[in-house]
């Protein structure tokens, strides 16, 4: 075991008083602190434009973040110990003044993790100022929050600007979906078990569905969201990353670049869409007034700060195709939306029917085999199969075989941000996007967004609390399929 003394650690969060910080990052770091995953000398420095003292910042986090820690984990002594780790530096991220003070707040010889929880337009300026202040060395890391650009040219510009100051091996482009336990378990399910890999391809798999549905609307994010839309906010990053893990070939090792090389091959194999493909294989939607969880919900155009004639999509469904031998002819259905009926994210692998069935008389009652990987609200993996009902005769009905991870692994499961933050601290890049991955994703997404502009169609309406426009059901029906909730 390596008993050499480790350098101290400073986690510097730009946007330290922002929504992401107090809702996600600091609660995640508290959980790591509570369970002994942060070294004693780890300090957390919030950075922002607020003219605050350390005491004012600590009071703000104590007031705001506490509500986002699970009640059973809120232990008074541990929470106070966590607050002792906090510090605050007031600075304008775009101006050199203040970076010298930030340097003074960092521990001598520390490993520095710079988490840029700010608008991407600030990334290049922050990187330049950190370099100018002598805060970048071979040990430091920088975490970039999405969205990384709004198209391929802007993504390239951000990547090039940050790369002037950080090596690629120091850059952690975070996607919290890749921190989910079940997503990471999918790698083991596929490549650690002999029973799945021979069937994980055409013609044995009929279709794949990837859904990320939310019940919330745009809330206070309308100013940002109206310039982004569901395609940029969810499909180009979260859903494509899930697609990559489902579709990738086995990497030669768990080395980060070996894994990311295989994901990149999937992104490069995605069939590019022509304008006619876009008309046929994509559906854009925008929610109208409705009822969600028993409460009245505004339509998107009635939300604060949304232009009255906005054509921004809050729902997207896409039939994607991967042009390689493994997935030839297998449709990948991607779907995401706000103000949907239920909040859930899942991956459904639907296997093909047997080529010949002795149960032909019961064909109407037969359900295809499905592997159901649920990411939220609860994580689970189920295999849906046909079984004989008790009694005389051979009547069938579908049953679920549960991979009962909850009872087998009784220890606590870290949430996605906690797991990924620990990966950053330990220098593990596997679950973070590489530059060429990000750019390949934009190369596929950009023509679709541009095609929608050329078509100039309004998004199709769907009432809040529904499962999206009817056209999304027609999209999968062409392949003799239905969305999961209708199965």
UniProtKB/TrEMBL annotation:
<comment type="similarity">
    <text>Belongs to the glucose-6-phosphate dehydrogenase family.</text>
</comment>
<dbReference type="GO" id="GO:0005829">
    <property type="term" value="C:cytosol"/>
</dbReference>
<dbReference type="GO" id="GO:0009051">
    <property type="term" value="P:pentose-phosphate shunt, oxidative branch"/>
</dbReference>
<comment type="pathway">
    <text>Carbohydrate degradation; pentose phosphate pathway; D-ribulose 5-phosphate from D-glucose 6-phosphate (oxidative stage): step 1/3.</text>
</comment>
<protein>
    <recommendedName>
        <fullName>Glucose-6-phosphate 1-dehydrogenase</fullName>
        <ecNumber>1.1.1.49</ecNumber>
    </recommendedName>
</protein>
<feature type="binding site">
    <location>
        <position position="214"/>
    </location>
    <ligand>
        <name>substrate</name>
    </ligand>
</feature>
<feature type="binding site">
    <location>
        <position position="338"/>
    </location>
    <ligand>
        <name>substrate</name>
    </ligand>
</feature>
<feature type="binding site">
    <location>
        <position position="233"/>
    </location>
    <ligand>
        <name>substrate</name>
    </ligand>
</feature>
<dbReference type="GO" id="GO:0050661">
    <property type="term" value="F:NADP binding"/>
</dbReference>
<dbReference type="InterPro" id="IPR036291">
    <property type="entry name" value="NAD(P)-bd_dom_sf"/>
</dbReference>
<feature type="domain" description="Glucose-6-phosphate dehydrogenase NAD-binding">
    <location>
        <begin position="12"/>
        <end position="185"/>
    </location>
</feature>
<feature type="domain" description="Glucose-6-phosphate dehydrogenase C-terminal">
    <location>
        <begin position="187"/>
        <end position="483"/>
    </location>
</feature>
<dbReference type="GO" id="GO:0006006">
    <property type="term" value="P:glucose metabolic process"/>
</dbReference>
<feature type="binding site">
    <location>
        <position position="49"/>
    </location>
    <ligand>
        <name>NADP(+)</name>
    </ligand>
</feature>
<feature type="binding site">
    <location>
        <position position="176"/>
    </location>
    <ligand>
        <name>substrate</name>
    </ligand>
</feature>
<dbReference type="InterPro" id="IPR022675">
    <property type="entry name" value="G6P_DH_C"/>
</dbReference>
<feature type="active site" description="Proton acceptor">
    <location>
        <position position="238"/>
    </location>
</feature>
<keyword id="KW-0119">Carbohydrate metabolism</keyword>
<feature type="binding site">
    <location>
        <position position="180"/>
    </location>
    <ligand>
        <name>substrate</name>
    </ligand>
</feature>
<dbReference type="Pfam" id="PF02781">
    <property type="entry name" value="G6PD_C"/>
</dbReference>
<dbReference type="Pfam" id="PF00479">
    <property type="entry name" value="G6PD_N"/>
</dbReference>
<dbReference type="InterPro" id="IPR019796">
    <property type="entry name" value="G6P_DH_AS"/>
</dbReference>
<dbReference type="InterPro" id="IPR001282">
    <property type="entry name" value="G6P_DH"/>
</dbReference>
<keyword id="KW-0521">NADP</keyword>
<comment type="function">
    <text>Catalyzes the oxidation of glucose 6-phosphate to 6-phosphogluconolactone.</text>
</comment>
<dbReference type="InterPro" id="IPR022674">
    <property type="entry name" value="G6P_DH_NAD-bd"/>
</dbReference>
<keyword id="KW-0560">Oxidoreductase</keyword>
<keyword id="KW-0313">Glucose metabolism</keyword>
<feature type="binding site">
    <location>
        <position position="146"/>
    </location>
    <ligand>
        <name>NADP(+)</name>
    </ligand>
</feature>
<dbReference type="GO" id="GO:0004345">
    <property type="term" value="F:glucose-6-phosphate dehydrogenase activity"/>
</dbReference>
